Amino acid sequence: MTAKLRAGLIGLGAMGRNHARVLSHLAGVELVGIMDPAGDPNGAAPATVVPTLDDLLALGVDYAVVACPTVLHEQVGLTLAERGVHALIEKPLAHTVEAGRKLVAAFEAQGLIAGVGHIERYNPALLGLRSRLENGELGDVFQVVTRRQGPFPHRIADVGVVMDLATHDVDLTSWVTGQDYTDVSARTASRSGRPHEDAVTAVCTLTDGTVVNHLVNWLSPFKERSTVVTGEKGCFIADTLHADLTFFANGAIDTEWEAMRTFRGVAEGDQIRFAIAKREPLLVEHERFRDAVEGKDSGIVTLAQGLRTVEVCEAMLRSAREGSTVSCR
């Protein structure tokens, strides 16, 4: 019988508790300990909680999940790499490009498996969208529009909405289209009285000329998670809150009502809401990382890919500061 991988968790906040839940039931893995200086005030942790990283590593872990505040990713990640521990680091990889580069170099130098927790890549709606785009079901892609908004999460205090939320949209856009960012033009706002921005609107261009728009904020009283991809054959809409994927086809039947035809432009065609299997994205993320640690080809988000996302988001922040379009090449 193959021995289980020994996993440790760093951080028992809102996201950390979700990681703990999944890790405690993950096949082939034993959650041996959790590190959080605040302990476990609710007594609900499914494993021993220790106060320091040294205490956690003393338990003997094969890999660790890093779910502490973003500004601590560099320090924690470098320690894990030095100690020969594989790591799944929550997104974003780091709070700056420089810190991200240090992490990439450290894990590569040790030959360790390391990934970034860009969970949207495992959302059933986006998995279906990417597959259908790869199959050419939309034809040439013209435009990608994402909307990610909701109330302010009080757990986030170390970075703004660009590095926290917009990293989701940058990563998923590159991933579903297979294209990289070439330039960004962004504007930010800070309306909640906190030191970081809480809203951003960005217009970007991809390597194939696709136009991209991101709307992200912590100012809306409702949650929205929408990715709209428009192309020559119609439009896909992925609702990642509910893991729904819908296709709106361009019409093949001519509209005889002249006023309506003029107003609508592209004629309406069939609308299809796809029936897709809906597995929890966080569970799929953990399964793939476990498989990667075991030496299997599982398609995790690499640190290099996570670094590229941080580079694009840092360009957004620079664009907003300077009021200019910034190259991402």
Q: What would you note in describing this structure?
A:
It contains nine helices and 15 strands. With 329 residues, it is an alpha/beta fold. The protein folds into two domains: 133 residues, NAD(P)-binding Rossmann-like Domain (Rossmann fold), CATH 3.40.50.720; 176 residues, 2-Layer Sandwich (Dihydrodipicolinate Reductase, domain 2). Strands 14-13-12-11-7-10-9-8-15 form a nine-stranded mixed sheet. Strands 3-2-1-4-5-6 form a six-stranded parallel sheet, with helices on both faces. The longest helix is centred in the last third of the chain and has 20 residues. 43% of the residues are buried. This is Gfo/Idh/MocA family oxidoreductase. Pfam families: GFO_IDH_MocA, GFO_IDH_MocA_C3. It comes from Pilimelia columellifera subsp. columellifera. InterPro entries: Gfo/Idh/MocA-like_OxRdtase_N (IPR000683), Gfo/Idh/MocA_Oxidoreductases (IPR051450), GFO_IDH_MocA-like_dom (IPR055170), NAD(P)-bd_dom_sf (IPR036291).
CATH superfamily assignment of the largest domain?
Dihydrodipicolinate Reductase, domain 2
Corresponding CATH architecture of the largest domain: 2-Layer Sandwich
Helix content: 25-40%
Proportion of residues in extended strands:
25-35%
End-to-end distance: 49 Å
Reading off the top of the CATH hierarchy, the class of the largest domain is best stated as Alpha Beta
Q: The biggest beta sheet, please?
A: 9 strands, mixed
Number of helices: 9
Rg over CA atoms, rounded to whole Å, is 21 Å
Which spans of ≥5 residues are poorly predicted at pLDDT below 50? none
What would the average pLDDT be, to the nearest integer? 93
| Overall shape | globular
Structural class: alpha/beta
Strand order of the largest sheet: 14-13-12-11-7-10-9-8-15
